[in-house]
Each structure stands twice: as C-alpha cells, then as structure tokens.
Specification:
Length: about 425
C-alpha cells in the first residue's frame, strides 16, 4: 500500500473529526492519567510494554482526548511501523501533503507506534526534536530494553519513559465487572473468585474469554509467535526462532530455575555466545526476567546463580497449563515487585529482595498458616545484614508476626499498592481495607 493511502486509512479523524469507537475503547487504564499529564511537556513520551497490553489503545485515547480538547484533527498524526517501515521525515512530508499542515512551523502531535522497527529511530527523532520545537512526539514499542538504551544514548534530557504492564488485578476486575471499584474490602470476595482467571489473561482484549484453550492460543499466537517469528527477526540479525521457542519451553516449564549457561549450552549443543544472545533477545522482548543472587558487591552478583522468571505468569500457561499454584504465586510476586534479586548462601535462601532505597527481604509461602521454619531464613537474613524489616506473602490473613516480620495475604499483596502494605518502620497499620485509589 502506498504511504499516502496508509496514512489516510490510519488517521480517520482527518475526515470524521473523531477516533473510531473500536480503537479508542471506553475503559481508561490507571496509567492513562499519567500519560495525559505528560502531554503538556515538550519532551518525547516513550511508551513501552509487552504486546497486547494496550499501548496502541492508550495512544488512540490520547488522540481522542486531544480532539475533545479542541485540537484540530489535521494537527494529529498516527503511524504504525507494524504496518510499514518508512523514514519519519517521509511520513511527515506525506502528512503535510495530505492535510496541508506545515509540520516544521505548526504545533503538531506525532504518534509513532512500534518505533523499534525503524533502525536508528532515536537519532532521527533527536534531529527533529532539536530543530522543530513545535512537534510533540509520542512513540511506543514492545522492546523496552532497546528503547530505553537508545533513549539514554541519543535522547538524554529529551524524553519520559513510561512502561505499560499487563492489567493489574484491579483493572482486570473493573473491566470484567463493568464497574469502578472504590472499596476493595466490599468487593474482596468477588475479586478473589477471579484471581485464577486473572493470572491467565491480564490483557484488555480477552478479559471476558472463558475457555482456557482459546486463551492459551491467543497468548501463544498473538503475543509469543508474533514476537519470536516477526518482531525479533525483523529487528535483529542472527535470530533463530526455533531456538527461542525451545528456550521458552525450558524456562516456562520450570519458572524460577537457576540459569546454568555451561550446562544448558552443552545440552542444547550450542555455542555459549549463541545461547547468551538468544537469552538476551527473550529479555529484550519482555518474555523473561533474570533475577540475580544478591551480594553486597554488584560485581560478585553479576553472573552467578541467576534465576529465570517469566515477565508475566500468563505467558507460562500455554507451555505449562498445569503449573503448580506455589510456582504461580512466586512468579506473580516477582512481577509485582519487578524482582531484581533473591538471596542464596550456604543452603539458606530468601525468595526476593525489594530494593528501593533500603533492602526488604520477601518470602513467598503458598499456605494458610505459618510456622517458625517458614521465617527461619528470613530471620537469618535480617540479622546477617542488619536489616529491620521483612515480609512473608502467604494465603492467610494480613498481620504482624513479630515487630520485624509482616505476613501479607497474597490477594491483598497483588491487589493493593505495595507502598500501602510494606513500609520501612515496624508498622501496626497494615490494613487490607485500605482503598488502593
């Protein structure tokens, strides 16, 4: 399709003055207000996230908001590099030809979707940003590592980076039920009934699907297959999609496994560098996360005993539909806290460490009651590193075990903001009735 025809097709508001209802969607995710606030700044907005989390929908909602606020339709341009890869300047020039907007002199909003498919995108946008201050760029991509690294190198001081994750449990339930939740405790029982389904399908498009077979097929074909067979080969050279699938089968078959590169390269009969390259690609595509074994020295922790977790537990089910519930809970907690570290030493282990100024050790126990053995390693870690606060996530009531250790119910932990449940003091104020808003 010619670029001119494609632009007319993608930007229906040039004719109608509005965004089609099927594209804009009525539900606004929690991150929409943050993105909307950033529209008033000149800086480039970079929206990153896994495929199917709703990045394009958020872009159309921002466009809809601009139109409703009185911005002329001809000053708004949307283009998706999923459809065709074209130079940004060529896109702008054809845009100008169609709607007669002088993008070099007039205020314009330029939305560029799946930008990572354009080689050298950051340097090209930098030139336009520096020389044409009336352009507001909003770009998105499914490859946050590349977008973040290129932004740091080429766009320093010129961008805001916002990550869009799969639906939170609150968003999922609101979409499923069609109501806004302003009192967690009131709906807590209903939300708990949706928890297992939520783990499998935290994507806006399929929240109302019920058949596991269809859900798993969607995740496999609409997310995983497109990333492994299209996105990565289109973006990089030397990509072996079959090897990527094999690695996912291994990693998703045993989430939280220790990554032993030497052993894995031998069993797969691969050169170690080839293996490392394809593991990087899976990280790049937001399909896996590597969690390092904590050491006081960053150098010491860099490559030893790394664990492999899925970016989101929903990605695991098409490969491992009967995954143990305890593994599911561990993976969900890892995603919730953006886990970067765990700790293992001399037979003792703590599942995760929250590192946000101070270190908070965290254990996941898939059980309703806790005994002394369940907190033994946590207590040891607190003493060893002179840390005054630790957390256990489990299936019982949210409560204080000791002045140093809090037990938090898994549902509470998933639903409520971490900052409302975990503090650095010795609080007696953990309250599951607290509203998340």
């Amino acid at each position: 399709m010619k670029l001119e025809d494609l632009l007319i097709l993608l930007n229906e508001w040039w004719k109608t003055g509005r965004v089609d209802e099927d594209r804009v969607k009525p539900y606004r995710r929690k991150c929409f207000s943050d993105l909307k606030d950033l529209m008033k700044y000149r800086q480039i907005m970079i929206i990153v996230g896994l495929r199917r989390v709703g990045k394009s929908t958020l872009m159309f909602q921002l466009i809809d908001d601009l139109l409703r606020s009185g911005v002329e339709p001809r000053r708004i341009l949307y283009f998706s590099f999923d459809e065709k890869v074209e130079d940004i300047t060529d896109i702008l020039n054809v845009f100008q030809k169609i709607v007669k907007t002088d993008w070099k002199r007039e205020n314009v909003y330029v939305f560029l979707d799946e930008i990572q498919k354009l080689e050298g995108w950051s340097s090209k946008i930098k030139i336009l940003y520096d020389n044409f201050p009336k352009i507001k760029f909003i770009v998105s991509g499914s490859a946050s590592i590349q977008l973040a690294s290129e932004a740091v190198s080429d766009l320093a001081g010129r961008y805001f980076l916002e990550e869009v994750k799969p639906l939170s449990l609150e968003e999922y339930y609101e979409l499923r039920s069609g109501r806004r939740i302003d009192n967690y405790e009131l709906y807590r029982g209903d939300i708990a009934l949706e928890l297992d389904d939520y783990f499998k399908k935290p994507y806006p498009e399929i929240v109302n699907w019920r058949e596991d077979r269809r859900i798993f097929e969607y995740v496999r074909e609409s997310i995983l297959a497109k990333i492994l067979r299209i996105d990565l080969p289109d973006t990089f050279k030397n990509v072996n999609p079959k090897l990527l699938w094999s690695l996912l089968e291994i990693f998703y078959g045993e989430p939280g496994m220790i990554l032993n590169l030497d052993s894995l390269s031998r069993s797969l009969r691969l050169h170690k560098k080839t293996l490392e390259w394809h593991i990087f690609l899976l990280q790049f595509a937001k399909l896996i996360v590597l969690v390092k074994n904590f050491r006081v020295s960053a150098l010491a922790e860099s490559r030893k005993l790394r664990k492999v977790y899925p970016y989101d537990i929903s990605l695991v089910f098409p490969f491992n539909p009967n995954i143990e519930e305890s593994r599911v809970a561990e993976c969900v907690v890892a995603s919730k806290i953006n886990a970067q570290n765990y700790w293992r030493e001399g037979g003792k282990e703590v599942d995760f460490l929250i590192r946000n100024g101070k270190i908070i050790p965290l254990e996941v126990k898939y059980k309703e009651t806790l005994d002394r053995d369940d907190t033994r390693n946590l207590t040891y870690f607190l003493k060893k590193f002179k840390i005054d606060f630790g957390v256990v996530i489990y299936n019982g009531e949210t409560r204080e075990i000791t002045p140093q250790i809090k037990a938090i119910n898994l549902l509470d932990f998933i639903y409520l903001p971490t900052s409302k449940l975990i503090t650095y003091q010795h609080p007696n104020n953990i309250n599951p009735n607290t509203t998340p808003h």
